[in-house]
Amino acid sequence: MNTRLLALLILASFAWVSCKKASTDSSSASSTDTTFNTLFIPPTLTGTTFNLTLSQSSKQFFKTGAATTTYSYNGQSIWGPTIIMNKGDNVVMNVTNGLRDTTTVHWHGFHVPAKMDGGPHQKIAPNATWSPNFTVMNNAATYWYHPHLHQKTYEQLTMGAGGLIIVKDPIEAALNLPRTYGTDDIPLVLTSRRFNADNSFDVTSHAYGDYELVNGTIHPQVSLPKQFVRLRLLNAETERAYNLGFSDNRTFYVIGNDGGLLSTPVSVTRLIMGVGERYEILVNLGNDAVGSNISLKAYNSNQAFGFPGAEPATSGEFGSLLNNTEFQILKINITAATAGGITTLPNTLVSNTYWKSTDATSSITTAINGGQGGSAFYFDNNYYNYNTINQTIPLNAVVKWSFSGGNIFGHSIHIHDVQFNIVSRSSGSIAPYEIGWKDTYFIHLGETVSVVAKFSDFSDTTSPFMYHCHFPNHEDGGLMGQFIVK
Ligand code: C2O
Ligand code: CU
Fold first, then answer.
1. CB under 6 Å to ligand 1: residues?
2. What is the atom index within ligand 1 of the atom nearest the CA of 108?
3. Residue 300's closest CA among 8, 2, 3, 55?
4. pLDDT given at position 28
5. pLDDT at 8 > cutoff 90
6. Which atom of ligand 1 lies closest to the CA of 440?
7. For the purposes of burial, counting CB atoms within 10 Å of the CB of 161, is it exposed (0-12), middle (13-18) or buried (19 or more)?
8. Which tens digit of pLDDT belongs to each residue from 209-229?
9. Domains in the chain, CATH or no CATH each
10. I want to staple 412 with a disulfide (CB 3.0 to 4.6 A). Which of 30, 177, 417, 470 is the partner?
11. Nearest C-alpha to atom 1 of ligand 1 is from which residue?
């Protein structure tokens, strides 16, 4: 180990252990180790009419000092409730803006009309309520909702606004999978924050936080039963990617990605997640002793430059105490199995037919430019313009859309309206767990990635959909474009 790395590790562990701000949480730890906080599990909303109110809130993250001002939906201390929807339902979303600032709410991953999408054009003024309605056409999977007002996305997300959406459907329901929310089916929203001296969130230094938060909980632990459990992971970071694994390097099984279940479980010991991506994994706790524990960790040390969070600096705009380290995400305490818990891994999941390159009826190529010397990024030599339509796609076109990552850094690419299949990565092969219905992917430094999607059902000659980097600071800086389907 080189001395720089050793120094970093010492610094990072010093920050955790001696932690002038010994962490605490409004929910105090209930299990074996009182230096940990009990993982917050967001409450759920069910039915077909969903009411969300965004407002300012506060949360006590540290034992000493002031509470932190946060944003949340429906009066939580941070983040928002988990919305549970059934495929085929016609739903109404009543979104009320209780902030003093304009906002929007985007249904990330959903196939809905552009006017219902909640992008930068569907503004919600302070005290106003926006009420889109749509039919849930998406497959059973884990999606999310979050603010998307141009040049406010980074700030409102960082303050804590966002929430998960779990879609259920009959195909998923017929499988022998864990699905008791909060017991063996656990949402894990991964992000990090930097705090100012007065405990407020730092919403100005743009890339990385120093403290890992899982569902808004610092230094969390959870009790999980001795059986197969399902973790629904979302990378809700600003830039950081996660190279996930368990502390004993056990094998786990990826069963779903952004827009649906995979055809078969994919076994891995590490899983890389870029910003905005979701993965559902199964982990077998059936061989663990009751009372023992394991940890979910980020093995983020020694990544190549361009992997967000690999930078060695411990402070500053592109540094953090978590950069280029292995850090604990979640302590898992094993408890007794539940009655009827899942004890076997399914061999097959759902039958998927993904788009191939040869299915494409047209193609689009988009280049990432800019970013020199820390300046903003943009697509195809233009910063995002609210009034410019960058691409027009014929209704029902099957499009091969290629992005070239540029030579400065990695990014997360997200396309609204569709679920696509990744058909090529110029840097090498596509990880087996990435093959599937996706709406967001990580693009490495210097790479070109192609996806294929069909733009069906919703045409609108005036309302655009967005495509952008999902790093909210990059998106706010102009790394976004818009397309109409007509
Ligand atoms: Cu998660 Cu354009 O958004
Ligand atoms: Cu980016």
1. 106, 108, 146, 148, 276, 414, 416, 466, 468, 470
2. 1
3. 8
4. 38
5. no
6. 1
7. buried
8. 999 999 999 999 999 999 999
9. 44-171 (2.60.40.420), 176-335 (2.60.40.420), 357-485 (2.60.40.420)
10. 470
11. 108
